[in-house]
Amino acid sequence: MFASLKSIGAYVPKNILTNQDLEKMVDTSDEWIKKRTGIEIRHIADKDEATSDLAYKAAKIAIKRAKIDKNEIDAIILATISPDYFCMPSTACLVADKLGITNVMAFDISAACSGFVYSLSIAKSFIESGLKKNVLVIGAEKLSSITNYHDRTTCVIFGDGAGAALISATENKEEAIMDVMASSDGKYADLLITPGGGSRYPTNEETLKNEMHFMKMAGNETFKIAVKTLTEDVIEILKRNHLTSDDVDRFIPHQANYRIIEYVRNKLDFPKERTVLTVAKYGNTSSASIPMAINDAYENGNLKYGDLMLLDTFGGGLTWGSALVKFAMKK
Ligand SMILES: CC(C)(COP(=O)(O)OP(=O)(O)OC[C@H]1O[C@@H](n2cnc3c(N)ncnc32)[C@H](O)[C@@H]1OP(=O)(O)O)[C@@H](O)C(=O)NCCC(=O)NCCS
């Protein structure tokens, strides 16, 4: 039995935060943001919209496109660093309830921007072992809820959104998720961190005053490790599957920074026309970044049944991963 990506869906909140808006909020400029990150706009959820609302809307599209009965879904895995509630209940349980699916295994995973690829790895194992048949995998983030809009080093980068994919059992090897690699190195934990609110620094007046509940990032150091890891990952996954970049129809990297993507793409000799780029219009949406990019490629006619996608990701933890996935959604 193989696991197969049978459908994709995404939801992007309506509100747009432009570089010009940010110029009025912090000491930055449209020119700096575009030159250093490639980001032009990012979407921001409404005040009364939480991560589960974004996830639900993306999931509904994915389920509809998969043409299956929602009750056939036997697991929901949701990757996020901005859950509706801290600790419990999981955002996956809330999404299951919104979808009207009861009596289903549902849980969140925490792997930051690598969350979608990590979830694919779990879904693949569940299906190949025969434990599950239809796994809904979601990457969803309301990063605006943990972004400090007084900190120019982070607030220009992040945006909100959600992407969802249905991963189903198939006997057709041509439709398979061929391989997933997922890894981490916790010695770099401090490079991307939300220090307050956990058991290390439980929320109190002091943590709030010091704005420890917001994301903090050592951008430059992260950048250097990101380009190295993203490149090495691709080399390894292609090598162990006896493939070259010529065999890949769509390179879909985590959309963190245009310069990072360009560095990796050039190192690996991937042509730009086969690389999916959404960072300019969505910014970095962490775990939602890759499924949103897959959805974008599909909706723009740049992805068709049978195409081989190479996913490549990197994020807080530090975590990283890559995947070789056939796009198996039929019209
Ligand atoms: C964050 C990032 C865009 C910053 O770009 P950079 O080229 O590394 O810039 P640096 O951090 O070295 O800062 C250069 C200067 O720009 C300034 N700067 C930082 N943010 C700025 C902003 N929004 N506007 C204007 N200036 C800014 C810095 O203060 C610094 O000024 P200084 O030289 O006077 O000290 C980049 O490092 C990055 O994308 N890192 C990786 C992010 C990532 O992948 N994160 C998550 C993985 S999911």
Q: What does it look like?
A:
- With 331 residues, the protein is an alpha/beta fold.
- It folds into 2 domains: 2-173, Thiolase/Chalcone synthase (Peroxisomal Thiolase, Chain A, domain 1), CATH 3.40.47; 177-326, Thiolase/Chalcone synthase (Peroxisomal Thiolase, Chain A, domain 1, 3-Layer(aba) Sandwich).
- It contains 11 helices and 13 strands.
- A 5-stranded mixed sheet has the order 1-7-6-4-5, with helices on both faces. Strands 8-13-12-11 form a 4-stranded mixed sheet, with helices on both faces. Strands 2-3 form a two-stranded antiparallel sheet.
- Strand 12 and strand 13 form a beta hairpin.
- The longest helix is centred in the C-terminal third of the chain and has 22 residues, at 219-240.
- It is globular and about 55 Å long.
- 52% of the residues are buried.
- The protein binds coenzyme A.
- Residues 28, 32-33, 36-37, 113, 152-153, 156, 192, 217, 219-220, 222-223, 226, 256-257, 260, 284, 314-315 line the site of coenzyme A.
